[in-house]
Amino acid sequence: MSLSIEVLSSVADVPATEWNALCRTDYPFLRHGFLLGLEQADCTTPAAGWTPAHLRLKDEQRTLAILPSWLKSHSYGEYVFDWAWADAWRRMGLEYYPKLVTAVPFTPATGPRLLHAQDLDPAVIWATLKQHMPELAVSLGASSWHVLFPQEQDANALAAAGLHTRHQVQFHWYNRGYSDFDDFLSTFSSRKRKSLRKERRRVEEQGLSLSMRNGTELSEEDWSVFHRFYQMTYAKRSGHGGYLTRDFFMETAAGMGDQVVMVLAYLGQQAVAGALYFRSSDTLYGRYWGCEREFDCLHFEACYYRGIEYCIEHGLRRFDPGAQGEHKIQRGFRPVQTWSNHWIADPQLSAAVGDFTRQEEAHIDQYISQAASLLPFKSLD
Description:
Aminopeptidase; alpha+beta; 11 helices; 4-stranded antiparallel sheet; 2 domains; 381 residues; globular; 11-stranded mixed sheet
């Protein structure tokens, strides 16, 4: 393939119509408006450790593909943990950062990572990118290239091109044509079904009521309140106000219309907690949670049970509630495999990363099998 590769310093360097035409999906996190919004809201800037370095592949006539990517000066906001790798580089007298990361910032949701013309084979594009990566890495000063949470076919294509594949586990819910939440619960064993119903009753017993609304139904005050909850919860967990700014919620998320769904929990007339989801035509993505004060079981209700109800009501196939969380298993979320792919410039360190990922894969496979045995269903399929 005869082409040139440009490094773009902003999503704005590509018109939204051209970007979204190459995107060809309603996966919300790859759209021009979402990624540009992160940049304009100061979430993905050099000051935040995310320097835009989007790769555009062109021939003499047209743009063939765009790879949304960033040069990272740290590993925060990625959810594929490589701190030990950075330490290994340091002990060898090398610099791990900056590294080139192809991902959706702050979003561990499996999905497409490559925008490309419809007549092109993604596997050919991935192989071409890998072929050019040594010279690109030198020009960018990057130690490595990391593709986080790609779809399985892209992960396989990257592995075929010579990148190391790393496996992780998340817990997703699948819609088996349930008519309502009780129909879903009917698949549980009796004891697990009673436990879940008790959790839902506990929310009501505390005098809480919940409202679930699409983005077009949300007011500016709703977004302001949710941002406050988000900041408070991050401050409790991590000692900082979160990766996302007020402008992201007030402008970018608020502008996404019905691709955004928010749950707000009220005690009387006062909002006390909220959960924010994004959606495509077939999948609901649970992303952010925040609360002003703690209530028993409210997190499960707002972040999981209302999401399941929404999927059933709207005929969505899958519910991806975010990274980690073994507590999801007993609530009917199945263990699934996720992927990341890694190219390392230094041959010695590349070999070490390859050994690590191969050993880790065996442990992941065993963990998935063990986790599946703990699902609450009457019979495991």
